[in-house]
Amino acid sequence: MINITINGLAVSVENGSTILEAARFLGFPIPTLCHHEGLTPYGACRLCVVEIGEGPGARLVSSCTYPVEEGLKVRTASERVVRARRMIIELLLASCPQSKVIQDLASAHGVRTQRFKQEYEDCVLCGLCVRMCSEQMMAGAIGFRGRGEERSIGTPFDVQSEVCRFCGGCMHVCPACQLRCTYNQPEKAVCNACANLAPPCIEKEQYGDMMCYMNPCVACEIK
Amino acid sequence: MEKFDSINGFHEFRSRLLKQFDPKVPTLVISAGTCGQASGANAVIRAAKRELLRKGPACGVRLRITGCHGFCAMEPSVLLEPRRTFYPKVSPDDIAAIIDAAERGDIVERLLYVHPETGARIEKQDDMPFFQGQARTIIGRNEKIDPIRIRDYILNDGYLALARVLEDQNPGRIVEEVTASGLRGRGGAGFPTGRKWGLFASQRNVSGKYLICNADEGDPGAYMDRSVLEGNPHSIIEGMTVGAFATGATEGIIYIRTEYPLAIKHLKIALEQAREMGLLGKNILGTGFSFDISIVKGAGAFVCGEETALIRSIEGRMGEPKQRPPFPIVKGLYGKPTMINNVETWANIPIIVAQGSRRFAETGTEGNSGTKIFSLVGKIRNTGLVEVPMGMTLNQVVRDIGGGIPGKRKIKAVQTGGPAGGCIPASKFGLPISYESLKAAGSIMGSGGMIVMDDSTCMIDVARYFMAFLKDESCGKCFTCRKGTQRLHELLEDIIQGRGTPEHLNLLEELGETVRDTTMCALGQSAANPVLSTLRYFREEYERHIEDKRCDAFVCKQLTGAPCQAACPVDTEPWRYIAMIEKGDYEEAYRVIRSANPFPAVSSRVCDRKCESRCSLGAGGGEGVAIRALKRFVTDRVDPSVYRPEKAQDKGRKVAVIGAGPAGITAAHQLSLLGYKVTIFEAENIPGGMLTCSLPAYRLPRDIVEKEIETLMNENISIEYGRALGRDMTIQDLMSDGYEAVFLAMGAHESWRLGLENEEVEGIFPSIEFLKEFNMRGIELARGHVGIVGGGNSAVDAARVALRQKEVTGVTLFYRRTRDEMPAYEEEIEAALEEGVRIETLISPVKIHVRQEEIEAAIREGVELETLVSPIKIHAREGRLTGIECVRNRLGEVDATGRRTPVPIPGSEFSVDLDTLIVAIGERPSSRALASMGLELDKGGRVKADRKILETSIKGVFAGGDLVTGPNTVIDAVASGKKAALVIDRYLSGRPLVEPAKPKLPEVYIEPAVHEESGEAPPRAVPASLPASERVKNFREVESALTEEQALTESRRCLRCDLAFTMEKQAGAAIGGVRHD
What we know:
The complex is a heterodimer. Chain A is an alpha+beta fold. Helices cover 25% and strands 12% of the residues of chain A. Chain A has two domains: 2-108, Ubiquitin-like (UB roll); 128-221, Alpha-Beta Plaits, CATH 3.30.70. In chain A, the strands form two sheets. In chain A, strands 2-1-5-3-4 form a five-stranded mixed sheet, sandwiched between helices. In chain B, strands 14-13-17-15-16 form a five-stranded mixed sheet. In chain B, strands 20-19-18-21-32 form a five-stranded parallel sheet. A four-stranded mixed sheet of chain B has the order 2-1-3-4, covered by helices on one side. The radius of gyration of chain B is 35 Å and the shape is elongated. Mean pLDDT of chain B is 87; it is low at 839-863 and 1068-1077. Classes of the chains: A alpha+beta, B alpha/beta.
């Protein structure tokens, strides 16, 4: 067991756990977007940042990837953390405002407006789908390509994957639920799973057949 | 090649080499790194080889081809050993002469380096300013070694450190030595290398431990690692092998970027040779210790310089950083302990082992020991790699070693640490270079790039450039780094395009801090530095872009428009009237000029030509269009009556203007057109202010001034002469007389005094008094030998006027700095020298830097200029001046004005006999009476007025011209008069005084002229002027107008920058008439 302090509370947590796991276990809420139990931590969305250390050495780290260390002092909601989180949410809203997940995050953190040029991107590159595909579905059909602005998710060279089994797992975990939900344009979909499987949203009666033609897909955003 | 199976075998080989080597044989050392080859070193090498072959074995000259020596600006260079003669910029044709001379033990004088300031030729490399301040422990070895010959390296103590540690067989001691040396990681973060080694050594070797040399040098403008790898690859191999022995590493990898083919080639050869000689691989030097190094080529991602991304890249995965901990030391490449050090760090290891930690730590400062190589690039004279002891100041590096900026511009900032570094302003150049100080200044050491920027650099543009680099090179994993850099770039782009708002600055700051705080790796954490550091030091520049929509560096196109127009304080459109001249429509050209400037004829003679200095034609080193001469051409031949200003209906409200100088008259004229009744109160008996009392008639004939002022008068303006504010009336009097607004424009008519004893004696005059007495009353105050103290326009005017006075025998101008720093216009100084402003002969030679040939010609004619002297004492006899005592100065540190302060040299005092002394060290307003009227003044006695709305501390009272700025140009006075009229109109009609700024962009489309290109571009037109002999002792105008042919040719030189803005709107746009505003 390892002794750490979270928000002033001295606790012992299991060796090898991350700050996020420890904090959630103790009931401190930390928002996440790219984190999913059952998938390896990735640390891409930076929403889960917490402040560690003290004085001038204090810094923000992503709690989902940071392993607990003996004597670590963690603050999950210090002013600096909250300020950073709100800016991250503002950036998310500016890029992907149509995502229900992001709207909820914004609402929960009191972010009502964003000050950047509005974009409507269909992916925040959280990488959940990539990890889902390789770690849970053992397929590895999709991955990241490019860097910086050019970074995107897809199959190598955009050729339809031979290892994809159309399981729809990627779609299931997607917080933006845009890219993969292109029923009416199956050729644009990453894995085409959606064209072959009944996605979870179809079970919702009130949308009947029409949801496949809605852009953006409303159904997916209502979980 | 020999293979050593014991350490002794190596030592024997080495002593055999040493015995064979004769250091006295003259050797041509040609630097042929990538940079050298690019500037033509290969041709020089070919020429040298051919020449040596031709001479045959009898020739006693050797050739050594080496890596980069560091002085890139002088490549291809040849160093002659053992004399150490340095030949810069050698052409293949010179090689034969150099070899011949070397054979004779001689040098070729004409090919030697010329000191840029003294003009003296310097023979030895070590005497050159560029090399003098350096401590070249690493880069200095490059010139000794042919990188593809291991013997050269061994001859220069190579692998001696390795042999020693293998003899010693004490790995712990090496780690201790490295720790004691205080060496810190040269990759940029500055982590103590010894501590890293200690941690790594303590890691258990389960199934291998890796050493990595990080040679992924990706910063734009940084290339020190490349030059070490190219020039001395064995030092890296030796360093890594020593490191492996000390820490128990089993395998080494050099991760090098593919863009360095020469370095890769040299490394491969070096590795091969080291293996063949038993210095690398299995059983090194027969000691049983094994270690081998392989090369991995990086595919060009900047982020792979980050250690965790680098490891992933070696593993064959996508180069993106990973959360630390676990640190690579614990769990790195393939999950095994891995230690990564930078090229320069590894290069330091053999040196530390060879000379011992104590000696190593003697260089540099406490906590920052050793040397650091910087690549000094950008707007700097001596571009190149400099290796200096840590703790040296930026000033020493940039100005002393780097030689400052070529040309007359000022150093603005230096950008250190690559794209993720920051900009440090010139005012902070006293900063000693260390990891901590640079960080505290908002930048980083980084790999050691130093990009010097002058005042033609826009800091927002710089920040945008680096953000564009970073948004492309961010790996994209962290959302805040990927999106944050994109958004920062977007915000900067907005500001540059003129869409910036104050909110942009807040957002830049907030977002910058979030990016710094919340990203995972060093790239992200420092990605906001370019923005945050420029915001910290150049916030005013940002605000200027946002509030005034101006880019003072003239870089941001959407804020600048046509540079000539943007440069003009009164918003003249030079491109437009030049286009009209080209079309032969001189009247329209006049209307264009006159619509912006009420004093066209005056300006065409005495304007300081801000437009010409910004002309795009001159920006690339050419000569700008002779805009002022073209204006003179128009104003000389067009009658002012062709321009009829529109006049608004009379408003019947009264405004008072104090001072009938260019500012006052302009304001009065503009106000009268707006329908106000204006009364000008003038202390003298004639109008014109400085135009008549200070400017000499040979520059500005009196009738031109009179005529121009006359055209500006109308029934709404009356002038009351002999009425001075404070003496004859107060502001309060004016207000109670029914004047609703007052514009103060009395100028600056009081000269600063030297503050020396005897300054009241006869024969000493303030320059303004001297000029006024002559210009207004014809009294000649100067006689005999006249001394002028000062370096501004007023000093040069006084000198030239004095020279024209009957009883004057000679004129000497004393200036405390050098001619480079003289604020007077260059052409005025030259004219003064031509006319014979001279000085006694006992004075030491003149030190002049620019336009050497003209000055030399002037000196031959007996003209001299005394710079770098300050008067310290005045000699008088019977109440009359007899002379002054001066002291010589040298230039010291840079002061707030960006010029180097003069520092007196003790013991250099000397006396000069003088009959007249004119003090022209600056003017200030006669402001004593103003304070009592309730006006706020600054320390220099100038009236405090808002920069934008000219409002003073009293409501309804505005001030402009020299009264506010101190001595300034005519055109700036006219501009403030124009502005005052606008503001007063807004004030009196109850509108807000400030209006949102708009960039001044060209609006009228004028069809470009099409004419045959006649081969060579014509040179800039030079108006005819009187020869010096004809103009001394009279006041005829010196310069005449251009001829029609000249003007036409000159107008065709214009690049028509306006078309970039008006071209799109051309459909339907006629060749436009004049806007009246």
